[in-house]
Amino acid sequence: GVILIQTRNGRQVFVDIIASPILESINTGKTEDTAATEKHMVGVIAVLRDVDEQKRQEQQRSDFISTASHEMRTPVASIQGFIELALNPKVAVIDEKARGYLVKAQDATKHLGELFQDLLTVSKSDDGRLANNPEVIEVGALLKELVEQNRMVAEKKNLKVVLDNGAADAKTVAPLMYVNADPERLREIFTNLFDNAVKYTSTGIITVGASLK
């Protein structure tokens, strides 16, 4: 593994360590019914490789992504706010053509904000800062909630969204599927899959469901 060590002069360096044990067979003097020798570790061969420059570059890249994402989200949020004001009939009067352009701009800025959030998530995942807070979740209920939240995105493209809860008919109780996971991470996964389904489906139906295996 890669660890941070301190040199004699106090400098901290990242090194990649591969260690292998040296085993020696020792006669135990046991009876013929049992093993006469046992393996004992008498030493270790370790190879240390200096990966400090590589790790520092990775850290700089991660810091840059985090800082840039934070900084860029601020103006994007400001743009979203002004667009919402322009679309509010109590604040501004615009024709339908202009309204259509603003709605498209609003969708684009929302997507841009989500991309910045994804960048932050990836950056945190790479350097171990991504928090994981698992809890017991009923998958069917979570999917139902997420489908309702994202349905409008599909309906804008005239796509039908179907939630397959595993029930054979209306009188059958859907299977309860509990998992111990972080709901925020599952939401990210579902949203990405759903967005891809909408993006690459020109006409027809998007079916969302889960099954026990």
Give your account of this protein's structure:
The strands form 3 sheets. A 3-stranded antiparallel β-sheet has the order 1-2-3. Strand 1 and strand 2 (12-27) form a beta hairpin. It has 213 residues and is α+β, with helices and mostly antiparallel strands. The longest helix is centred in the first third of the chain and has 36 residues, at 52-87. It has helices at residues 52-87, 96-126, 139-155, 183-199; strands at 2-6, 12-27, 37-50, 135-138, 160-164, 178-181, 205-209. The protein has 4 helices and 7 strands; from the N terminus they run E-E-E-H-H-E-H-E-E-H-E. Helix 1 (52-87) packs antiparallel against helix 2 (96-126).
Short descriptors:
three-stranded antiparallel sheet, 7 strands, single chain, flat, alpha+beta, 213 residues
**N- to C-terminal separation?**
34 Å
Strand order of the largest sheet: 1-2-3
Helix and strand element order: EEEHHEHEEHE
Low-confidence spans: none
Annotation field: number of helices: 4
The total beta strand count reads 7
Our Rg estimate from Cα atoms comes to 28 Å
> Pairing-aware structural class of the strands and helices?
alpha+beta
Main sheet attributes: strand count, strand direction, barrel closure: 3 strands, antiparallel
Which bin fits the share of residues in helices? 40-55%
What is the molecular shape?
A: flat
Strand content: 15-25%
* Average pLDDT rating: 86
Topology summary:
Elements: E1 2-6, E2 12-27, E3 37-50, H1 52-87, H2 96-126, E4 135-138, H3 139-155, E5 160-164, E6 178-181, H4 183-199, E7 205-209
Parallel strand pairs: 5-7
Antiparallel strand pairs: 1-2, 2-3, 4-6
Helix pairs in contact: 1-2, 3-4
